[in-house]
Write a structure and sequence with these properties.
- With 190 residues, this protein is an all-alpha fold.
- It is globular, with a radius of gyration of 20 Å.
- It is 78% helix and 0% strand.
- The chain is built from nine helices and no strands.
- Helix 6 runs antiparallel to helix 9.
- It has one domain.
């Protein structure tokens, strides 16, 4: 009898037999969308003729190139972090939970600013608020589900990549690009 219980417990805890994890796609899309936003900011600023790096005695063109290089390096951070969530790293799930919860709080705090922006006819902050007040809490809720926690604890990198690979990656990348472009435009039109 004891052997049957042990083997059934082992079967239940294998990644193939666990309930599907929740929130991974949304979390990865958020992280990769932030990557798109960070990478697009210097590109769009070049077309707007704005000099984001204005250092006295420093060539503006060289400043823009330096800014572009630095932002591309910084953009790698959320891209790699999203990849760690996709690969089933439990520490990345916990970090995602904390950071996304803080983003949700920031969205709640900035709701009065949204109201003021809408009153003067600027509707771009709605994009940011949707991400912070609706999508971020959904990510926190879904990643904090017990089934998702069990999946992250028991899955290997190979199994996670197999589950979250193929067309899944392209679908999430598409959402990240759309969200990242919209958020970049929203941030630049405040």
């Amino acid at each position: 009898m004891k052997e049957t219980q042990t083997s059934s417990t082992e079967i239940e805890t294998t990644p193939q037999n666990l309930p599907a994890p929740q929130g991974i796609g949304m979390a990865v899309a958020l992280d990769w969308g932030l990557t798109v936003q960070i990478a697009l900011t210097p590109i769009i600023s070049l077309f707007r003729q704005s000099n984001l790096v204005n250092l006295p005695g420093f060539n503006p063109t060289l400043g823009n190139i330096l800014f572009f290089i630095i932002t591309l390096i910084i953009a790698c951070i959320p891209a790699l972090f999203g990849e760690m969530v996709r690969r089933g790293r439990n520490w990345a799930r916990w970090t995602q939970l904390v950071v996304t919860a803080l983003l949700s709080l920031g969205g709640l705090i900035s709701l009065p600013n949204l109201y003021q922006s809408i009153q003067i006819g600027n509707f771009w902050p709605i994009v940011t608020e949707i991400i912070l007040v609706i999508i971020s809490p959904l990510i926190v809720w879904r990643l904090s589900r017990p089934a998702t926690a069990r999946w992250f604890k028991s899955v290997s990198v190979t199994e996670a990549r197999r589950r979250h690979g193929g067309s899944w990656v392209w679908f999430i990348a598409l959402w990240a690009i759309v969200g990242g472009v919209l958020q970049t435009l929203a941030a630049m039109n405040r």
